[in-house]
Specification:
The structure is a homodimer.
Chain A (H helix, E strand, L loop, with lengths): L15 H14 L8 E2 L2 H8 L3 H13 L3 E4 L3 E4 L13 H7 L4 E12 L2 H7 L6 E11 L2 E11 L7 H6 L2 H7 L4 E12 L2 H7 L6 E11 L4 E10 L5 E6 L2
Chain A binds a DNA duplex through helix 3.
Chain lengths: ~240, ~240
DNA sequence: GAGTGGTCTAGACCACCGA
DNA sequence: CGGTGGTCTAGACCACTCT
């Protein structure tokens, strides 16, 4: 068991549980809290930090949800054993690449106002054939094509231009437009690349590709985007942390 | 906004927040609470149900986490628009198939005590070459092969037999052995099937397959299993719901 | 300004675990 | 048995959104 030393600023607008969770996470990923380390019990720990037990618990829950801590009733809380990796969250490919220093680049192949195909219309909850913004983009990292991305968005986003998309990720543009994406449903599969996909992705026809379809909803529960993407399997894979309830 | 009618049993050992969450979820998936329906505000709703606001909030949070409800400060809580699907949780392929009425069957190809290869040893946090239980199984559904599964487990699980595995899923066996899996890290990719994989899966060499590697940890944070699976992409895909924090 | 969710507290009792 | 996390309460103040 270790003495935790955390820096809590009650004057900050950042919630206390978030301050605690962030610093704990940093200490775990930095190795200051080694795997297997037992945290003290919640009551004493909360008193030590000058927080209510519930606030401390909320911070711990955050990290349990990320798979960094493990709790067992009657026993205690400890740092999970095994190497720690960042779990994937709801982020855009652009952000992921930028964070990894991979210099993402986007080539806009198409940007049309077009009639929505059936699957996109169903996902967006609009009538098939309605006018939507259709995007086809190739995302490259470190100079090599990585993904071929197709997106359908409601017509109200029709002001997004090809230039916008070349400079920033779609999700960043949506955020600037005041859209907060809260929930997304994803479907991940695999198949072989078509000739056109292979040409755009710089690979061979018939190469294995990962496919992802995603419907994203904003904070009022309205579908904001339907996406159907194709990734080069030799250069990309999905990572996730799953926690049982 | 609707009048909620829930059945809360304070004598039950089931936590109140769980009772509320479960019944709310049922009403949403059953359509009794239509997409877009606004729930009343938390203070009144809690009073109406005879619960503290925090307990009600905890129930709501459960469903927000599953992507069934959406909250916005200053506005309210409502059922997410768009068709509702069950989000995927940490379940085994066997359970998923059984629930879908797909009659899962398992053929145990190999069951050995063998030396751990490097990647499995690293995932399990043991020395390479240590003795581990190695499993190779083919999972079929509705009479057709679906997945080729490789698992490596610490030697203490060496008492698991091929017969056990033919009758029940691996996770069910581990549960019976008192092991609770709490966290898993997964990696999903794609490639082409090798000749051997194609033969076992009843498909053609070079067919696209989905691959998943998973390391699972129990409630004390110890790695319990390392898995490397191959799925026929024409018969299987991964589905998930992602929620932003 | 009125109404909403977001955070926080101090205390309480319980269920489970290990010695 | 003592120690731990799991649940629950009644109240409070704040930040945000809409009109």
């Amino acid at each position: 068991m270790t003495r935790l030393s955390l820096d809590i600023d009650r004057a900050s607008p950042v919630p206390l549980y978030f301050q605690v969770a962030k610093q704990l996470e940093e200490q775990i990923t930095a190795g200051a809290l080694a795997p297997g380390t037992k945290l003290g019990n919640e009551v004493q720990l909360a008193a030590h930090l000058g927080l209510s037990r519930l606030t401390l618990r909320r911070a711990i829950e955050e990290l349990v949800g990320k798979g960094l801590l493990v709790r067992k009733r009657g026993v205690g809380t400890q740092v999970v054993l095994g190497q720690v990796k960042r779990p994937v969250e709801l982020t855009s490919l652009y952000d992921d690449l930028a964070r990894a220093g991979q210099q993402p680049a986007t080539q806009v192949v198409r940007r049309d106002l077009a009639a929505a195909p059936e699957d996109a219309a169903a996902a967006l909850g609009i009538a098939p054939g309605s006018t939507v913004l259709y995007l086809e983009r190739v995302r490259s990292a470190a100079g090599e094509p990585l993904a071929l991305m197709h997106n359908w968005l409601p017509q109200r986003f029709g002001r997004i231009t090809a230039d916008d998309l070349a400079a920033r990720g779609l999700y960043a543009l949506l955020r600037s437009a005041g859209v907060t994406i809260k929930v997304a449903r994803q479907h991940i599969g695999a198949r072989k690349a078509t000739a056109r996909e292979a040409a755009l992705l710089g690979t061979r026809r018939g190469a294995a590709v990962l496919t992802m379809q995603r419907t994203a909803y904003d904070d009022s529960g309205v579908a904001v985007e339907f996406a159907s993407h194709v990734y080069r399997a030799d250069r990309y894979s999905f990572e996730s942390t799953v926690v049982s309830h």
